[in-house]
Known about the structure:
1 helix; globular; PH-domain like; alpha+beta; 3-stranded antiparallel β-sheet
Amino acid sequence: MTRKLVQKHILYGKREFELRDNIIKIKVNSLLDENKDFEVELAMINPEPIITKSRMEFHSRVKCRPLISLYLNKPNPKEFNEFVAAIKSKAQEEFNSFAGLKN
């Protein structure tokens, strides 16, 4: 299953989030900073995000720092909420599988 979310910001550029089997692939094309391309394993993500000002952040289960930061409701609330729900569900599923817990 692959889902994609593209967010654009007038000052910070474009971010692409692609939810794959057990990872999220992230591409950041920034106007003010260097471009980044990296992956985050879903089993590492705490499935309960934290909202700070205009962002929603998914933190690490281990080091308590944000691994994924999304602009709230971009590109639109419906698409944003569907993508966030998919991350939450998949992160919990991957962690349960990793820990040997049954759903």
